[in-house]
Amino acid sequence: MQTIEVTDEQHAYLEQVRSTLQDEVVGRYGTCRDCDAVQFLIDNFDDERSLSEAFDTDALVENGELRYTEDVSSTEPSDAGDQSDADGEDDSDAGGDGATDDEMLDEMMNLLDTHDDKWDESPSGDHRYRVELPDGGSEDVQTKDDVRAILFREYR
Predict the structure, then answer these.
(1) Same domain, 51 and 80
(2) pLDDT (tens digit, 9 = 90+) per residue, 3-34?
(3) Which of the chain's ends, N or C, has fewer CB atoms near its CB within 10 Å?
(4) Where do the segments described as Disordered lie (predicted)?
């Protein structure tokens, strides 16, 4: 595996991405590594998503490291802030559909059975599982928790 060098500011930004992915995508039953955050940034480079909604990029702009511009006033940054401030006790209200923590856990645990046609063992020697994505691509991961997180993100 190749290594890359990043500045302290870039590492702080990457840590913000990793932390947000951990909280919003993976949840408390899995882990998100720095390389997962880098892969997220690579995968979403061409997407129309605005990462500035969820992350404070002012420090990167001041140092000239971030050159992307967007009118942030037209987005809703308060939603992203509310989601990151939510603690475990408020999870039942965060879904908006009235699902309890137990229902959410049951759904998460049943994702492997529900979508058994969407994942299988990876032919790659570096990864254990391969998940088929809705766009026709695939993603290789190490653990079933990672498989669950992708299925939850893509097919829920």
Answers:
(1) yes
(2) 888 898 988 888 888 888 888 888 777 888 88
(3) N
(4) 67-145
For residues 14 and 41, give the distance between their C-alpha atoms in angstroms, rounded to a whole number: 9
Domain limits for position 106: 98-156
pTM over 0.85: no
Go through the chain and tell me how many residues it has.
Answer: 156
Alpha-carbon gap, residue 24 to 52, rounded angstroms: 16
Distance, in Å, from the CA atom of 98 to the CA atom of 93, rounded to the nearest integer, reads 6
Q: Is residue 90 part of a domain?
A: no
Phi, psi angle pair for 51, to nearest 5°: -70, -20
CA angle 17, 49, 144 (to 5 degrees): 55
- 56 contacts: CB under 8 Å, gap ≥ 6: 16
Express each pLDDT in 81-94 by its tens digit. Answer: 444 444 444 444 44
Per DSSP, which regions of the chain are E strands? 119-121, 129-132, 138-141
Tokens of 17: 């991405």
Clarify whether residues 5 and 72 are in a common domain.
yes
